[in-house]
Amino acid sequence: MAKKILITDPTLRDGNHAVRHQLSRDAFIAYCKAAEAARVPIVEVGHGNGLGASSMLVGECSLTDEDILKISREHLHESRMSIHVIPGFCTIKRDLTRAVELGVDVFRIGTHCTEADISDRHINFVRQAGKEAWGILMMSHMATPAVLLEEAKKMESYGAEAIVIMDSAGAYLPDDVTERIGTLADGLAIPVGFHGHNNLGMAVINSVAAVNAGATIIDGSIRGFGAGAGNTQLEVLVAVFERLGFETGIDLYKILDAADIAEKTFNPVAPSISPLSIVSGLAGVFSGFAKPVARAAADYGVDARDIFFGLGKRNAVAGQESLIIEVARDLAEKKAAAAKG
Amino acid sequence: MAKKILITDPTLRDGNHAVRHQLSRDAFIAYCKAAEAARVPIVEVGHGNGLGASSMLVGECSLTDEDILKISREHLHESRMSIHVIPGFCTIKRDLTRAVELGVDVFRIGTHCTEADISDRHINFVRQAGKEAWGILMMSHMATPAVLLEEAKKMESYGAEAIVIMDSAGAYLPDDVTERIGTLADGLAIPVGFHGHNNLGMAVINSVAAVNAGATIIDGSIRGFGAGAGNTQLEVLVAVFERLGFETGIDLYKILDAADIAEKTFNPVAPSISPLSIVSGLAGVFSGFAKPVARAAADYGVDARDIFFGLGKRNAVAGQESLIIEVARDLAEKKAAAAKG
């Protein structure tokens, strides 16, 4: 019997990163219709950083959360609607309560891979409201398989009904995925999933590795639409899974049509793997750092790539932008010392 | 000890397909310099279909073979220069003789995967001239591992000093590569190589699979520059090989610089995986058919993707464009019959 895989499609959420959260009403409508036609089981929508994240600091959405959820709900019937929820950005009282009212089906509650405990109340709230709650572990390459399992178990104990690990920096090779997903699939009673990024050209094969190691949930984004080097390209994923005999329930021709619609409507140029994306993947550093790193490189006269590797050595995570200056200053000092001989 | 991999870079040859063979003198100069600086061991140059192929039929080059070889030779010092040679396009008397005089180091002599015997005289000539001759088996997914080995052995017996199999349709998944390269590496006394295309997002991991199965030569093209979904992206390959402890001798930062130079000079938009590329990979059909297939689809009112799958079933190879019409007509007839009930 064919192995069944549940595909979650974050095109209208992770893809928002690629356009500074400016996806238009027309884009939401066009893509929800296309995904629904292709029988994509779950469509994730919202600001790149999820519900309640629109702000001066991380970027303001052109649409409110309320608008996005209403527009998407109107065009998703068979497909379930999911949102990304980061405690800290997303409050329970203001945001989650309203999201429940607006008909969100699946709440994907994400934390840094070693901070699962801040997801406790959010997961609880969603379950109490009778909705589906998943736990998402971001930047998962920064934790060992054993630590990931511990963190995932916390989320499971709070009521999470699935765990998805994200390769936020696109740092994994297939063996890394096999090891981590294998550990989670063995140690958890709930389904396990994988969300890839393509910095090292591995997003699709990493997803295959995840399934072979026991994952049953895979994220894929049309045309790879997403930040930096992009996410796992959904239509390629569907083709490869079909070839391997994994059943996604998604119609191949219709998902190829969805790619054409995305190209015409909101994604004229597909993401590609830039030199800095590669460095970001190798260093295991969030590619969202690219812009401040480039600025610091110019200010201090050092190589942006050295800054990335320096950040990787210091295990920098999102929010630690101040580390960029610190690393750049160190590199500039070393360079000056070397020049003096 | 680190495993040593010999990288051949067909950017200035396979990439020519992506720009209808219009790569300019400036592009050749800029990229030869960049590749040389990055210590790329072998740089392949020329018309997309190789020496002597420029013609009305397959596309006219903006530069003559003579120009290309002279310009490239002038800017390649440590890096060796290679050319792609298809007997039929490339004659011994006119083309190969002159290529030897102009200082080509490596002659990569390619045939369809089941027609190695037409490479006999070309390989012989190159060896007699004291130059290096490799045998290239194109569209290699169309032969079983055993047949590929037979064909490769013929080339070896003619004097080929290496065998490279090409995944011309981007049809392989890693296990396919493992099986074929493993068979060749076991059965041949000469080095074995792999040339990937990215139709199913597998080019980099297929190259890794090739090395793990015994290949020591891998082709990679900057920014994946090549026909359709593109070739194996060279700078990603170098990064991943470095991470895996395979030694390419290529400088990572300098090859990343080369990608920036390519972007600015001749490749503003990197190749991406289009819906038709995916179908081409799944069907195992040369993606160069895309345009005539689109035309036939319009003429006969049928789906281009159905034509591709139809061509795949008939094992269509380049040059058999007439099959496209045949398949399109069949599909149209079936459609008409179905409409009648």
From TrEMBL, chains A, B:
E.C. code: 4.1.3.39
Residues binding Mn(2+), per UniProt: 14, 195, 197
InterPro entries: 2-IPM_HCS-like, 4OH_2_O-val_aldolase, Aldolase_TIM, DmpG_comm, DRE_TIM_HOA, PYR_CT
UniProt keyword Manganese present: yes
Protein name: 4-hydroxy-2-oxovalerate aldolase
GO molecular-function terms, A-Z: 4-hydroxy-2-oxovalerate aldolase activity
Signal sequence annotation: none
Record lineage: Bacteria, Pseudomonadati, Pseudomonadota, Betaproteobacteria, Burkholderiales
Family: Belongs to the 4-hydroxy-2-oxovalerate aldolase family.
